[in-house]
Design brief:
376 residues, alpha+beta, Rossmann fold, OB fold (Dihydrolipoamide Acetyltransferase, E2P), six-stranded mixed beta sheet, five-stranded antiparallel beta sheet, 20 strands, binds adenosine-5'-triphosphate, ABC-type maltose transporter activity
Length: 376
């Protein structure tokens, strides 16, 4: 049970390169917080500073109200699960899971009870006598999670724990970890979990809140749905969502008292409520963000001369229930996501009219890249 607070956290490696630039973040007691961002954005470095595996250059880490900058990892009340499992190869599963408790000089009966309880939770009771080399990757990772659980830590830290597993196992393990978080809560162990991943599907499905990082800075901290529906800036808009949001250069213009954007030399009207929010920015260059599901054909949305552009189909990916249509207008490439009932049989090189649902448009300042289309 612990709140984790990062105050102006800075990391400079000895080579002099600052990779974490003053991060401020409060992770609430019992919260499942995901750190997500592209490779090299300092997710792991930040997590390792919380764990005590990396020196802190500046700022503070507080766990349960106490500054832990100088505490050894074992004294921080944390348990960490790594991508490579980090199991002892010469020990059985039981011994691996018991190891930390033995070091902490817990009595043997209590250790056995804790290990069995955790093994049952993770359905690995039948593996307790095996050694890591005789198990699959998924089983090893369950043991690594089990080793963390037995210690009943206040804070669980996960560093890309599912990256070495195949796609199907990743899905089942991610469910298991989120269920574990809920089960522990039910049992009164309000475990705070901090989970690092570069996989936005993991981030969206697991996190109570997600902290999106880029180049050592926080871009946005919010619930999965708010990140998707109200991205604070162009970076978050482009990072969260698959296929990625279409981001188009446009200029906000006024014609006959109505506000719209000029795209490919055509004026497209913004619906009135959207127009009112960005009225003060008329004349400015902006990034117009449209999710693939906000672009469609005449069967999937209302297409009018004021929201339609003609494009050339470059590729179609069939997903079963829907298809992703990649098309070009001039040099720009766009993605539309169309439900299979509405799909036309579009072939490479064919021309089609695509409707742009500007009611759902996200609008970002061209220079600052901040979202200027949010209702205040
Ligand atoms: N020991 C080190 N010495 C110097 N630079 C380092 C060290 N470890 C990491 N870095 C640098 O710090 C930056 C952040 O690395 P970090 O591993 O935290 O990123 P990440 O977001 O976890 O990336 P990935 O998703 O690829 O694991 C990178 O530029 C990396 O090269």
């Amino acid at each position: 049970m612990a709140e984790v607070v990062l105050k102006n956290l800075v990391k400079t490696y000895t080579e002099g390169e600052t990779v974490v630039h003053g991060i401020n973040l409060t992770i609430q007691d019992g919260e499942f917080m995901v750190f997500v961002g592209p490779s090299g954005c300092a997710k792991s470095t930040t997590l390792r500073m919380i764990a005590g595996l990396e020196d802190i250059t500046g700022g503070e880490v507080l766990i349960d109200g106490k500054v832990v900058n100088r505490l050894a990892p074992k004294d921080r009340g944390i348990a960490m699960v790594f991508q490579n499992y980090a199991l002892y190869p010469h020990m059985t599963v039981f011994e691996n899971m018991a190891f930390g408790l033995t070091l902490a000089k817990m009595d043997k009966v209590s250790i056995a009870a804790r290990v069995r309880e955790a093994a049952e939770k993770l359905e690995i009771t039948n593996l307790l006598d095996r050694r890591p080399k005789d198990m699959s990757g998924g089983q090893r990772q369950r043991v690594a999670v089990g080793r963390a659980i037995v210690r009943k830590p206040a804070v669980f830290l996960f560093d890309e724990p599912l990256s070495n597993l195949d796609a199907k196992l990743r899905v089942s393990m991610r469910l298991r970890i989120t269920q574990l978080h809920k089960e522990l809560k039910q049992e009164g162990q309000n475990a705070t979990m901090i989970y690092v991943t570069h996989d936005q599907v993991e981030a969206m499905t697991m996190g109570d809140r997600i902290c999106v990082l880029n180049a050592g800075r926080i871009m946005q901290v919010d619930t999965p749905l708010n990140l998707y529906n109200k991205p604070a800036n162009k970076f978050v808009a482009g990072f969260i969502g698959s296929p990625a949001m279409n981001l188009l250069e446009a200029t906000l213009t006024e014609q006959d008292n109505r506000i719209g954007v000029i795209l490919h030399n055509k004026w497209l009207a913004l619906p009135e409520e959207r127009a009112n929010i960005v009225r003060q920015h008329v004349g400015k260059k902006v990034w117009l963000g449209l999710r693939p599901e906000s672009i469609g054909n005449k069967n999937s949305m209302t297409c009018t001369p004021e929201n339609t552009l003609r494009g050339v189909v470059k590729a179609v990916e069939q997903m079963g229930n829907e298809e992703f249509v990649y098309f070009a207008i001039g040099k720009e490439q766009y993605t539309a996501r169309i439900q299979v009932e509405a799909a036309e049989s579009l072939e490479f090189g064919s021309e089609c009219d695509f409707g742009f649902d500007l009611q759902k448009a996200h609008i970002f300042d061209f220079e600052t890249e901040q979202n200027i289309g949010l209702e205040s």
